[in-house]
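quick one before i forget lol
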Amino acid sequence: MPNFRLGGGGGRMIPLIGYHHVLMIVIAIAIILLSLLLAGCSSSSPLIPSIFLISFYYKSYTPNFDTAQVDPGVTTAISNIVNQADLLVRVGYFGICVAQEGEDFLCSNNATNLAAQVSVDQDPLNLIWVAKTFRDAIVFPYLIIIAIIFAFFCFILLATFPGWHEETNPAGSEHEFEVKPFPSRPVSQIALALIFVASIFVLVSVLWQHTASVAASTVAQDLGDGSVKSGVGTAAMCLGWFSFALLIIVTIGLLIMILSISLLDKLTD
């Protein structure tokens, strides 16, 4: 495989950070963001409860009336049941967080334990149970977990790429050259395949997460019309889509590198 050479004095000034190191940094950032996404609502640590897929909370507001409603008066009955409840419930991939207005979040992966610490007056419509059903029946974190594993293996493969080192001019000159051998083509292709599959898995997961959260939020709010509000977690959506964008950047970067090396090989033959 050919080497890429840079001449003497100027070559010494070039940083030892290679192209693949930049890709490794991008992969590391994507892995961290995806890990934060999975950790949302798993503990009461600062900022963790703010990373959620969907939230349900009691709030009194003017009901939406529609001619398709068979019994518009049901909103009054629901309002009487809810009364002064003000519980907030947030759902993550592996945990659920609950909080009263003005109080700290209480988070757990066991909805039964959370329900045992909340009175009937605080959760009259069983929003904790609704959150548990959403998490167990709709949320699927395993594609993201597999994507993180694939991205990590890609990171390891990129770490095996050769870096810059000095060689003496074979013609006998006293000048030294900075030399960077090309990485192995099979290793590069495996790394590209891994990061491409990871990107696809993250795309599917984020699309699934976004669509399911919006749909569930709309249905829950309509059922609790006038008494229950629901929303989609902005932080979780941003983490998911930004991670996907970073993985796509790495995929394109690796593809360009492989094609460039292939072209240089043909030119030097």
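fyi The radius of gyration is 27 Å.
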